[in-house]
Amino acid sequence: MSYPNNQQYPAPGGPPPPQQGYGQPPAGQYPPGQYPPPSYPPQQQAWGAPPNQQYPPQGYPPQQYPPPQQPYGQPPQGQYPPPQGQYGAPPPGQYPPPQQQWGQPPAGYGSPAPPPGQYPPQGYPPQQQQQQYYGAPPPGQYGGYPTQAIPPSPGYGPAPQNINVTAQVEGLYKAMKGFGTNEKQLIAILPKLDPIQVNAVRAQYNQRYHEDLIKRLESETSGNFEDALVQIARGPLLSDVWNLRAAMKGMGTKESVLNDVLIGRSNADINAIKREYQQVHGRSLEGDLRSDLSAATEQMFIMIVSAQRSEEVDPVNPQQVERDVAELQGAFGNFMTKNSVKACQILTSRSDAQIRAIAQRYEQQYGQPFVKTLKRTFDGHMEQALLLLVARAQNRALSDAEQLEDAMAGLGTNDTLLIQRVVRAHWDKQHMQRVRSEYQRRYGKDLVKRIKGETRGDYEKTLVACVE
């Protein structure tokens, strides 16, 4: 479908479906947009509406669907619904920056934005762009046109060439050369590397000194300090692959690790994880998930790793949200009529913006918070996975902050989860600072001080270096 020539698209200040992987701007960083303008969108065509279909739908007064003061898809911020915001929009002031174009994901870890002007091209969609991209909904489901596949996160795609990390490579070698280890130098180098640099450091170290950096770190360090350094040195993709295998190897399954690594990831990242898992371990991720999980939970994770989510540039279609809400309510049912697979199929295939819209519309329709309904309907591993999916869609930084506290709360600290969660968040420095801000707001204490109270020695210094 095409848009009127006199209609600017994307609309400045309009509501992009945000990326809810890493890199979501924090609440309050950007002023909430004053949209929609009185003259936009035209009454006969709305954002995300199917082609050649009048919006609002027949039977709804133009001024009442959706009610201007209660747009769908915006999480509650103290009161519900908020006075401003748009269908599928994140919390007021959180997203997007004023210069962000409609339909583009936010810049940052997990959501590289398409090149300026690439989406949507003038006269979109031309015939040569009608192919279906992976992860896109079936034609006609969200407006009837193909979507643009989001590139993988830094460290998950092809390695850039000619990365100069000679100083870091030599510094690591000197820190472990001869008798004794210079732990201070290891801590000064590794936590400061970004995903591209750490992959280059590992490759160049192995080539230059004819030894494996990971094995050398394991031989020179021990305990939680070793685990933290190895998590960093492997980089985000290899860490995901090793953590997944460890979670399913041996007796029992570490469900929290499966959730942490796989829930809410982009299609490109999931596909990268599957390829690397097969290459490193010589076995398929899907096969191991089937072996370790069962029933509806197994089916849910197979859906997740099928990498069929709507992309974050896909529009939020009000008609589809209405259908999703109605189908979810029927799937929740009761103990006898509950259809867990149907509920998972809907939620695991929707983008973060679409999940936010579903959650808000559900509460408007049934007077019950969506999260509360999930808790009432599901239990065990499935409940945890679906709650994390919704939490990450609504506010990724706050969700990460809550997970960090969960790893430290109670008697004793779950050091394995704490290390993995700190290292995973630190790959995007801006995201890490948003997590720290959300932690302060949520718990009234500084994250660095909290970590210092739960850790000791070089282990403590390594995690603090990641957070700071």
UniProtKB/TrEMBL annotation:
Superkingdom of the organism of origin: Eukaryota
Notes concerning its domains: A pair of annexin repeats may form one binding site for calcium and phospholipid.
Sorted UniProt keywords: Annexin, Calcium, Calcium/phospholipid-binding, Repeat
Keyword DNA-binding (UniProt): no
Pfam families named among the record's database cross-references: Annexin (PF00191)
Biased amino acid composition, Pro residues: 58-99, 112-124
InterPro entries linked to this entry: Annexin (IPR001464), Annexin_repeat (IPR018502), Annexin_repeat_CS (IPR018252), Annexin_sf (IPR037104), ANX14 (IPR009117)
Homology family: Belongs to the annexin family.
Bias kind Low complexity: ranges: 20-32, 42-57, 100-111, 125-135
GO molecular function, one term: calcium-dependent phospholipid binding
Organism in which the protein naturally occurs: Westerdykella ornata
GO cellular component, one term: vesicle membrane
Protein name, as recorded: Annexin
Region feature (Disordered): 1-162
